[in-house]
Structures are given as C-alpha cells and as structure tokens.
Queue: 2 jobs
Job 1
Amino acid sequence: MELIKDIKNLEQKVINWRRDLHKIPEIGNDLPLTTAYLKKVLDEFGVEYRTDFPNDSSILVTIRGELDGEKCIALRADTDGLPMPESLDLPFKSTNKNMHACGHDAHAAMMLGTIYTLNQMKDRLHGTVKFLLQPGEETGSGAIDMIKGGALEGVDFILALHNGNTTDELDEGKIGVKYGSMMACMDKFTIKVIGKGTHGAYPYMGIDPITTSTHIISAIQNIVSREINAVDTAVISVCMVNSGTAFNIIPEEVEIIGTVRAVSKEVRAYIAKRIGEISTNMAIAMRAKAEYEYSYGPPPVVNNKEIVDFAKQSAVNALGKENVQVLEKPILAGEDFAYYLEETKGAYVFLKNPLYVDGVAYPHHNVKFGLNEKYFINGVKFFVQAVNDYLK
C-alpha cells in the first residue's frame, strides 16, 4: 500500500533539509544552529514539540492521532556531527571545521520527512507517535538526557535507522534487520605509564615508559586473539598514544587511549578486567608503573525479537520483500540507542546508501564519507509504514 501520495515532492524536501543541515554540523550536546533549524521547520509543520531536557538541543515531537487509541510508538534520529574537516567538494559542504561524517544529517532529514507525512495522516491514526531528535550520540550521552527528561514515558516500543555504508552484508538501497545483538558497546580505556625521564643517550639511568608502552600495547592485543573464543565478536583498538617533548629526551610518562567493542556483556567485562591486569603487571615487569581507567559507554545494541519481526514486516510492506534483508553478523560500531533498549522494547535497522567517490564508498568517520540521496525516501517510507502498521 502506498502511504505517501506525493513521493517526488517529499523526496526533494528531505534532500533539501539534509543539505541545509549538512552545512552546519555541530558536535556533542550543544547544537544551537542545528536545533534552531529543526525548530524552524517543525514550526512550519505546526506540530507539537518540547525542548525542556537536561540539554536544550534535544527535541521531542509528539503527534496525537485523532482516532481513539492508547498505543504509542517512538522513532529516534540523532543530530550531531563530528570534529573533523570535510574533504568532499559538495555544493552543500560544511561551512565550519566539523563534518556530518556519520550521516546524522540524513537521519534528521528523514525524520522531518516522517513527521511531515504523519502530521497529514493523523486523522487515520489510533494512538500517539513520539519523535526523538537527539544530540550527543557520538559522545554516548544524548540518549541518557532524553530518557531522564521523560521522552520514553508511555512508549510501547522504539525504532531507529542508521544509513550509510554500515555493513558489507547489506545490498545498496535495502533495509537490513538483525535479530539479537546488532552493535557493540562503545567503551574507552586510558592507561598512563609512568617511568623515569632521562637523556636519550643514557636510557639505563631512567625507566623508559615508551618501551614499556609498546609491550603493553602488544600484549593487550592478545586478549582478543588468544583469550576470547574466536566465535565471539570483539575488538580492542589503541587510537591515541601521547608522549615526549624532544628527540633526545626519554619522557616521564606515556598516555595510551583506546576503545573496546564487544557485543556481549560477558566479553565486555572480561576485556575490561584483563586490560587492567596486563597493563599493571607489564609495567611492573619493566620497572615502571601503570594507572588504568576504564569508562563504560553505551552497552551493546540488542534488538527485541518481537519488534524485529514487526520492523521486518513493515519494511516489506513499505519497500517490497526484495528490498529487505535479514543480517547475520553484528557490527562493532557503537550506538547510544542501546540506552533506550534498556528502558523499553525496540529495534535498530540499517539502510545501505553509500556515495561512491572515485569508485570508493568511504566509511563512516572518514573525511570523504558521503551518502546517496536517492535512497533517503526509503527510510521515510519505512518509518511511515511502521507507524501506520501499529496505529492504523
């Protein structure tokens, strides 16, 4: 059943909204330009919304169906960008030093398209739709603020979508659903290795924290390759190593910062413990000292089977069976959508729409990351269909 009557007109609106948002990427929980733009469009729609959350860049839109019904479905889109420059020479290129390199501009635009459409259909709805326009996904804190502000009150379940080149399993233009664990935790670890500084010509007079750090970095990689069952999915990545002031000075300290990704709570906890044990004892073996800190971010994204069944059928209803795939493998990216799933039932889905640049589909968080705009409408169709299927 075709629910969106003027597809072409809506498709161009969504593309235009996304391009406008792409020009003004902001990071974290403070998105004044993005929030002002979204509120301006929502005011044009004439819909009800509130922003009285712990941060004022969160927006909760509510559409109340005009027919009797107590059901309530929630849809979520993230709105923040990343602190990195953009290399693509697009007509709507970022106008500041940030970039929408994870596709959140498109998420917000697709949600605007969904709100626009459902607001025109509210005379056909039995119940309520809540739309969570959320900052701070990249920092893993935006969902918590919306939950604290009561965004999920009365919600039966929640859906969200991520677009881009998320997984090789999924074919271009299609919706992918996944049962069970879909995405990993998003944790951070910091190891400070403390040695004794000295002249680079006299290493025996000091305790080298750099050499010690190389042993620690090498050893913690063995956790995944030698201590975790090969069928369990996990990654440990050291992403920052900070130390030194000159070529001939052995420094006092080295700071090692990295991330842990795991799709099960048990593996997550084991890795957190073992990094601490290895770094502390390896430092002692090298006559140094290690201070270890592990920060738990969003947990793994674990979809509810009942809601995945529902989302899969809605995607089929919206796009046809040939455009919906069931995914077998989780991915190791993280998502603070996981916090919503700890509070209520829900499911996260993927839309595959990479933009090829010189024949390459660059990954998320890359300066050449791009999106194929012609598939945005598929995301809108999915969301509109899901609401219609639940509240019709």
Note: The chain has a mean pLDDT of 97.
Job 2
Amino acid sequence: MSMQVDRKVITGGHIITMDAEYGELPQGALLIENGRIAALAENAKAFSHLDAEVIDARGAIVLPGMIDSHRHTWMSLFRGISGDMSLPEFLANTFYGLGALVTAEDLSAATLVGALEAIDSGVTTILDCCDCVNSPDHAVAAIESLQQSGIRGVYSYGFQVYDFQPAGFSSHQERVNFAAELRERYFSDDQGLLRMGTLLSDFGTVPFTQTAAEIRMAQQLDILIASHTGALPNSRLLKGLQELDDHQLLQPGHLHIHCSGLTDPEWRLLAKTGAKVSIAPETEMQMGMGFPPIRACLDHGIAPAISTDIVCVGSGDLFSQMRLGLQTQRCLDNHQHHIRGEVVSELSLSVGDALRWATHGSAAALGMETSIGSLTPGKQADVIMLKHQRAMVPSSFPRASSVLQSHAADVDTVIINGQTRKRHGELVGQDMAAIRQRAAQTLARIQQAALGRAEITGAEAVAWLREAERRASVNLAEAYRR
C-alpha cells in the first residue's frame, strides 16, 4: 500500500535559494514533499504532472524562512515600553522590574503572541530566550505556547532570578535539576519542531560556580548554550570570558549575544573557542551598547547571525534588523575611507551578506545549518513569500528589495515544515481574536500589578549598575579561589 504524499508546488515567483549551487530562479518552481524541499526547477512545467497544491507566487519573492537567533518572546506584551531607555534603565525597570510580576499564565500568553508575531513577519525559526523562568510552571507554559504557535525553534531555558513571589525554586541547584526534567519530557528525541537550549545567568550576576554548573548541565544534556556577552562597553558586567576559558568552559557552538563591548583579546578568545555571535542592531544602537559588531565578527572569522531581541524597543521583524545593521556597517566602513581622504568607490558589504546573516548565519548559530537556512533539496521546507503590494513596478534587484524595502506587512505566505502558517497576508490555524483579547487582558493585569513601582532613571540607574558591577567583580573572582 502506497503512502500518501503531501505535496506543494510554489510557482512563478523569483526564488532566492541562498544556495550557491542553485542561485536565483527568476520564474522558478519549488516542490515540497512531506515537509521537505524535494526539488527546484526553472519553471512550473517540471512539476506539472504531479498531484500537488499549487501556490501561485507570481509577482512575489520566494525566500528561505528568516531565522531569529535571539528573541525574548516573554516580553512581547510590552511593546515600545523601553523605547527611550538605556541598558541600565531597561534592566532595572523592564527586565527585572516587570519580570518579577510575570506569572506562568502571563508567560503563556506572551510567548504565544511573540511566536505568532515572528511568524507573521516571515520568521520561521527562533531562539526563544526565556529568561523569565520564575517557576517550573513558567517553563512548561512557554514550551506549550511555542508548540501551539507552530514555529520552529530552540527553547532556551533561562537562569535569571527575579523577585517573584512566592519563589518558584528553592535553590539554584533546583533550577539546574529541572532542566533535565524538561529535556526528558519535551525534547527527548530532538525530532520535533522545537529543540532545547539554555540561556546562562548573565555573567557576573551569580557566583562563578553557578555559571560553571549551568554550562556543565548543558553539556551533559547536549543542548545549545547561549549567553548575553559583553553587551556594555566600559563595564565589568556580562564579561568573564577569560575566567570561563581558564576553566575550559568556553566550547564550540556557544552562542554569544550582543558582544558589542568586547575588546580585541576577547574577540580572539571567541574565535579560538569556536563561538557563534548573534547581533541585535536596534537594541544595541539605542541602549548604549555600542555599534553592532558586524565588522568585529568578520575580522575574526565569525559568521554573524542577526536577531530582533525585544519588541520593548524596536521592530520584531528581521528585515528591519538586516537593513539597519547593513547600512550602519556600510557607513562605518565608508567612514574609514573618508578619514584617509579617499572617495568610496565600492561598498564593503552587499545585500546578499545581510540576507546570509538572517539565513545561513543564524541557522549556523543555532546548530541547524544542515536542515534550514537555504532552499536546498533535502532541507526542511521553511519558505516565505514577499509581495510588495504598494510597489508600482517590479523590483529590478529582488535581493536588494528583500533587505532594503521589505517589512512584516509584505510577508504574504509563510510555510514551516511544509505547513502553511500564513496565507494571503493572514495567519491561519489560530483564533486571532481570542489571542488578541487574552493578550490585552494579560497586559492590563501586569500594568495594574506594576502601579506604584518607582521608575529608576538617570543617576539612580547608574548607581544600580555600579552595584551590579561590584557584585560581578566578586562573583568572577571566585573563579580563582582554591
């Protein structure tokens, strides 16, 4: 008895495969079978004999699904709240301030909203940085919401500690032990859309022995390790790379987020240990983290990955991040010519480079480059279609229009693992009215709980940061105690 094959054929669009062998197909066709890319062709005739659902992509640009290598879905309800905040103000008021109020039910609603917003903007895979694990129930709520959304991703179990009452864990060791329970319960075979990772305690915020325990736990469970690393120039906070390396705790594949405050010796350490780096241009440029370290990555042989980080600050779509990151780095590179008295005759980075950050680069950052990141036969069928409905003429350079002229509203179709999650500009398979109502009610509850909390700004934020730095110096010094 023959098995039924689920087939889709995308035809007539300009296909950008992000695969050097297949290149671009101006009126190409793409065959999907049982959740994988089966074949590519110059046109639809190659697949006309097949019994398949035909998706008309005429006038559209067809791309691999975007990959967001660092996204905090738990903060997705706080849209724009930190738009005028520095990093210390954000940490004191939003991250720790509101994080202490988030219940498991709140987290469930926020994670679902964050994942669906990602899909809506053409993101098919995320690293969900779930710092806010205030209790075991919080972790379960986040995972089950990610499953409900249909997104592909890595659930990154976080170790940050908030002033949540009543406390959901009695000790750091209990948090470490619970990671193994999650691994067994939800991620035992690594075959589903979701994998497990961990987000380390911010370096210096906990004793060095606890950071070491988190890393060894992740190594034992064979899960992705991610950390916010060197995000603040001129600060001891979020540092500690040398201490980690001295204890053989920096391993290949460790994903370091931001890195905009690292020194050249620290960059050499990342390169030596096989690190990956995720850059979030919008938050880095706003919050005083320095310039997005794209050039530092390239100079040290590290392929950049890119991310949205948080909608507390900026856009939740990777097109905006690619555009901002590319044009900022171009400007910085051009300026080097200007200060030498030269005229810029060619650009140092291309729009294709920016697309790689959101596809190949981010796939590699998550350890998934063999299964996603390009429209290559045999890979998972994560595909998006852009239709620039407001454009009055077709694009003369679709790669450039994808990076420089696209927004979430241009995403017409999203397919994840062969399943259509957005069609004709609308999410499918979700009760969006109910989800929006739940999200609004959840936000209102948190806002009510936050009434009366004093906002920390200016000198108070600096004092808060300095105290955190003092603790970091003590905690990192523990690495060398005998």
Note: The chain has a mean pLDDT of 96.
